[in-house]
Specification:
globular; about 375 residues; 11 strands; six-stranded mixed β-sheet; 17 helices; about 45% helix; single chain; alpha/beta; three-stranded antiparallel β-sheet
């Protein structure tokens, strides 16, 4: 009988084979010497080592992922017990979509050594149904998620008259929102303002904070989305904004003195937000707040995932990496805890379809310079 079980075990994958071996050992302890068990454990430890680890980076050396890639490649090598730094492959694309497409072609079962470092913009491109996207980040296993606050600023007139707009006492006009493009990272503010009933109109061509704030000061736009960068002081930026400009809501890590979206919605509507589009906003805002995501393919062998997560937890304690993260105002979560944050960026199917229907219905209007319709 034991010989038959041993023969069956030989045809199983390594994880099941070890499980069956353990069961046999428990039932036939006198037949299995202790040394054989110790040898098996040593083999498990050896199999968890990562052979030639490499990092696919969603951006060129000047992008946010590209800037931190050398630091992260060196810090990860320590936890992976491989000579530093690990190999880095840069993608010269704008938002990490090309890198994510490449990453999705990696065979996780045969590999286990390739991770991606992507910006939140790649996640938003996927959520919005961008035609360039051929990857599914719901199949990623999170290793590190680095988040930063996202604040929507607008003229105080909008802030004071939200309730009157909704009650029909105010003859509203489109709220011009500065965006890089309508379905870029500013989608969080665009959808949020729409849920509040403020009929936003995306005005594209504002790829950086300085140009967006200047447009706000000169009256070209009515609202902007801010995220802190190196050397920025978000609280100081808000306090020094031109007279009449106030924060409407924030997402991601909280900002002192700035209400969260739920609080603003409660003030405007008199009840808590709900529904499929709100659920999709939660995912979009989480993606917008996710400055960096380090992940593996979901089907990577469990031992390899465990090894990488250990390396990620070790890496974020590296002094050079911590200094860089602090300068970028990033709140970093590593290891298994990052998986839940990545999951927050993916809504249920009903909400995802509602988001894409909302985008498809409004894109023709945006191209014609018309305000957003709520549904």
């Amino acid at each position: 009988m034991r010989n038959r079980l041993t023969f069956l075990a030989s045809g199983l994958n390594p994880t099941r084979r070890r499980f069956l071996s353990a069961a046999l050992a428990a039932g036939c302890a006198t037949s299995f010497p202790a040394r054989a068990w110790e040898d098996d454990m040593r083999a498990d430890a050896t199999s968890s080592l990562i052979d030639s680890p490499r990092l696919i980076v969603g951006g060129g050396p000047d992008s946010l992922p590209g800037q931190v890639a050398p630091l992260l490649a060196t810090a990860l090598a320590g936890g992976l017990t491989t000579p530093p730094p690990i190999a880095v492959h840069y993608d010269m694309g704008r938002d990490g979509v090309t890198a994510a497409n490449l990453f999705d072609n990696v065979s996780p079962e045969a590999d286990g050594g390739t991770a991606i470092l992507a910006p939140g913009a790649a996640l938003i491109a996927s959520l919005s149904g961008d035609s360039r996207v051929h990857f599914d980040f719901s199949r990623w296993a999170g290793l590190i998620v680095a988040r930063r606050p996202v604040v929507t600023l607008a003229r105080a007139e909008l802030h004071r008259t939200i309730r009157s707009r909704l009650s029909g006492l105010f003859h509203d006009r489109p709220v011009r929102l500065a965006v890089s493009h309508p379905t870029g990272v500013e989608l969080s503010s665009l959808l949020g303002l729409s849920l509040l009933g403020l009929h936003p109109l995306p005005v594209d061509g504002f790829a950086d904070k300085a140009s967006a704030l200047e447009a706000l000061k000169s009256g070209q736009v009515d609202a902007v989305q801010l995220t802190p960068g190196p050397g920025d002081d978000l609280a100081a930026d808000i306090a020094s904004a031109p007279e009449g400009i106030k924060p409407i809501f924030c997402s991601g890590p909280s900002v002192a003195g700035v209400p969260g979206f739920d609080a603003t919605y409660q003030m405007a509507r008199g009840h808590a937000p709900s529904g499929a589009l709100y659920q999709s906003w939660l995912a979009v805002s989480s993606a917008a707040a996710s400055a960096l995501v380090l992940a593996l393919p979901m089907l990577t062998p469990p031992l390899a995932i465990a090894r990488w997560r250990h390396a990620a937890s070790v890496a974020v304690t590296d002094t050079a990496l911590k200094t860089w993260n602090d300068a970028q105002h990033l709140v970093v979560t590593a290891g298994a805890d990052s998986a839940s944050l990545l999951n927050q960026c993916m809504p249920e199917l009903t909400s995802l379809l509602a988001l894409r229907r909302w985008i498809n219905n409004n894109q023709p209007r945006w191209r014609q310079g018309q305000e957003t319709r709520p549904t």
